[in-house]
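ok here's E3 ubiquitin-protein ligase TRIM39:
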Amino acid sequence: MIIVSPENGYWTVWLRISSGFRALTNTPTPLPLSLKPRKLGVYLDYEEGPVSFYNVETRSHIFTFSDTFTEKIYPFFSPGLFEQKNEAPLIIYPVSDRD
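and the structure:
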């Protein structure tokens, strides 16, 4: 079983109907968001260590994890399931100076 946590290499935010929007820290951190983000931005500074999540549409900060990286890292995205199906498709947009 994989435990999703920064100690295991997962810097994660998730939205669950039962528990709301959370950052998966050692003890999950509730995120007081009134709107469910439809577009989520992820910023990683490999040398300095922060992994930050943003609401792209409102240009607002959601949460930042601080860490140090010594190995290659890989992105992992999952929209999860809602009533055993995906409510909306996962679309990954390229970074643009216009966004």
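+1. The chain has a mean pLDDT of 83.
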